Amino acid sequence: MEVLCRMREMREEKGISQGKLADLLYVSRQTINAIETGKYNPSLELALQIAHFFDTTVEDIFTLVTDERRF
């Protein structure tokens, strides 16, 4: 399964850097970069914090791509 992430798009729409977002969420810039590039899936707590920051739902930011034949 793969997770698609819209965080970079949403961050750029707000005009903030990875470093600024990292500071606001109390994580490293490297963590933000890893989430945006799909190298790291955030914890539930961090995903909720990200959604709160962008005033949206976790599902609007992170989408699970599955093989529909499995369900």
From TrEMBL:
It holds the Pfam family HTH_3. InterPro entries: Cro/C1-type_HTH (IPR001387), Lambda_DNA-bd_dom_sf (IPR010982). Coiled coil: none annotated. The keyword DNA-binding applies. Keywords: DNA-binding. The keyword DNA-binding applies. Residues 7-61 form the HTH cro/C1-type domain. This is Transcriptional regulator. It comes from Breznakia pachnodae.
